[in-house]
Amino acid sequence: IQYERVGADVTMKCGSMDWDAAVTWTANGTDIDESHLNGSYLILKNVDLSQSGQYSCYEGSSWHLKYQTSLKVGTPPKEPVLMCRSNNYPKGFYCSWHLPTPTYIPNSFNISVIHGTKDMVCEKDAIPKNRCHIRYLQLFSTVKYKVTLTVTNPLGKNFTTLTFDEFAIVKPDPPESVVAKPVPNNPRRLEVSWQNPSSWPDPESFPLKFFLRYRPLILDQWQHV
């Protein structure tokens, strides 16, 4: 496999063949015009994504295969986007990430989490694959967390770092089973009920506050509870 950047000039050598040997090149089984050859070398100028594919070089008229490579055109990764959040306090938090733009070639991600001076294990989720979980070492810790995410592909690498306090990333999931019912014999009233998010593990020790807003469809202004 040969990885090259979008916009690069690419030279391919026909295996161990001499520069002046008579050869034929194909891309995905289709003959390549001789104007792209310099002797037996294949020259591709300013490559783009459409030129990714299987390139083969054959010896003269005998069509003996001498060289073959899979060309993959892409870009180095840009700085990844990283987010950490605790939706099940006080159990721990998760971090998720993505790239702001595609690279068109495989990327690998490595995440490190440091709590003070301690390295912590971020357990990868199977689904979604770009997420991992951290278990809190201790409650009400005043020691900051530092999370560094590094992305690497065959054309380059990049990273981003977050530093935060435990309490700063606590954000519950929304309430569940929200139901609005008319109140009998009172057409101007609604009864609204809901349940705690099922992901919130200990609502007795860490109670949640709820904020409700409502408006008739014909009005723009919200009422708040």
TrEMBL record:
Example of a GO cellular component annotation carried by this entry: external side of plasma membrane
Domain Ig-like: 7-57
GO terms of molecular function: ciliary neurotrophic factor receptor activity; interleukin-11 binding; interleukin-11 receptor activity
GO biological process: positive regulation of cell population proliferation
Domain Fibronectin type-III residues, every copy: 174-225
CDD domains for this protein: FN3
Pfam family, any one: FN3_IL27B_N
Keywords: Cell membrane, Disulfide bond, Glycoprotein, GPI-anchor, Immunoglobulin domain, Lipoprotein, Membrane, Receptor, Repeat, Signal
Subcellular location: Cell membrane
UniProt-listed SUPFAM superfamilies: Fibronectin type III, Immunoglobulin
Topology in the lipid bilayer: Lipid-anchor; GPI-anchor
InterPro entries named among the record's database cross-references: FN3_dom (IPR003961), FN3_IL27B_N (IPR056621), FN3_sf (IPR036116), Hematopoietin_rcpt_L_F3_CS (IPR003530), Ig-like_dom (IPR007110), Ig-like_dom_sf (IPR036179), Ig-like_fold (IPR013783), Ig_sub2 (IPR003598)
PANTHER family (UniProt xref): CILIARY NEUROTROPHIC FACTOR RECEPTOR SUBUNIT ALPHA, CYTOKINE RECEPTOR
Family: Belongs to the type I cytokine receptor family. Type 3 subfamily.
Protein name: Ciliary neurotrophic factor receptor subunit alpha
Originating organism: Sinosuthora webbiana
Higher taxonomy: Eukaryota, Metazoa, Chordata, Craniata, Vertebrata
Gene: Cntfr
